[in-house]
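HUMAN: Now follow token order:
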Amino acid sequence: MASPFKAYDVRGEIPGQINVPFAYRMGQAVAALNKPESVVVGHDMRQDSPALADALAQGLLDSGVTVLPVGQCGTEEVYFHTAHSGAGAGLMVTASHNPESYNGFKMVLKGATAATRENAFDAIEALVMSDKVIGRVGDYKARGHLAPILDRDPYIERILQQVAGQDLKPMKIVCHAGNGCAGPIIDLLEAHLPFEFIKIDHEPDPSLPNGIPNPLLPEKRSRASEAVVAHGADLGIAWDGDFDRCFLYDHNGRFIEGYYLVGLIAQTMLRTAPGATVLYDPRLTWNTQDLVARAGGVAKLCPTGHAFFKHRMREENAVYGGEMSAHHYFRDFSYCDSGMLAWLAVVAELSASGTSLAERVEERIAAFPCSGEINFTVKDARAAQEKVADRYADENPEIETLDGLGMDFADWRFNLRASNTEPLLRLNVETRADPALLEKRVKEISELIRSA
């Protein structure tokens, strides 16, 4: 069986790679190797997630570890409660935006620090995937304690701190939870905010009647887009299933690429932290670099992936980090990503400036048009990257290999990287105010990849 352990989390197919016995061993391995006194455990809305979370908890309990359950929740709630409770680790059962037949685990260590290959997953993988018997406590009294479900109030209070004391303007906002876990959080926030929420596909539903919520896929955007127009809303918000990613639509129902939100949120955060560092990923860069510089901040590259960002955020004491894939990281949220803080930062900025989302991004889209992420299924990702690199080598580009292949030219650039979680090659292209050149280069590189 192929290992479900990836670069910065665990994801695999149900039941071949991920199942109840696997989850139980995962709990035992975390207890044996990381030796936490207590662990926060939560799960998303997927059909298999509650059983996997129960098995994970049982493995921890049988190893003498106290379990602090969150129940059905978003990944960021596990991050928050891990830091807030002082637990030794936090484990979230989710496969994020992977297909229905997948599930997995995201993990953080004490203080919600990133679990990486080096500090956790290599050793856990070796033990879980081995035939070794993992010890249990021998005495009933030595078993761990299963605590009551954690109170959500401290988490909600922390989210609301993002806009405390700010003059928020009344807005009509479409919320598309996609039958994931975001809906109940919006319900809890609603009484404290001056917004009218139009809720669609709002209740968590393990049957996923509309498929996996993943607004990065163009075919998943129409529900929110059409609702914004139909209701005359000021903007729309959509989340993936475990709501650690946040996506926005303007009042015209236009999907706003996450790339442009990184720059907008960076400007907002730098107002309260002048001169601070902002992290961004290598896929699309020019707009973020420009806006951070204008705001007096320091923009620094970080490899794609939540574990890399969490680690680098702490290392740099960055006030904010943003990935174009819609992960947004905040220093005052234990350097973790939050799909709730992100949209609140945007609406606070719109309220303060008196502008619309469309107005704020229009100029940036014109200055730095981008392709958005284009995915290719290829037999050999490295061969495809080499073919593209060879094609442009004679044009003397600036080459960047922090995460995949990046080539910068005077008036355009691209990044081509293999996914860390799926068998895909991902392409992103941007230009300097030249949509025609963008279209030309996307077509050109796409043909090279398909012929590799």
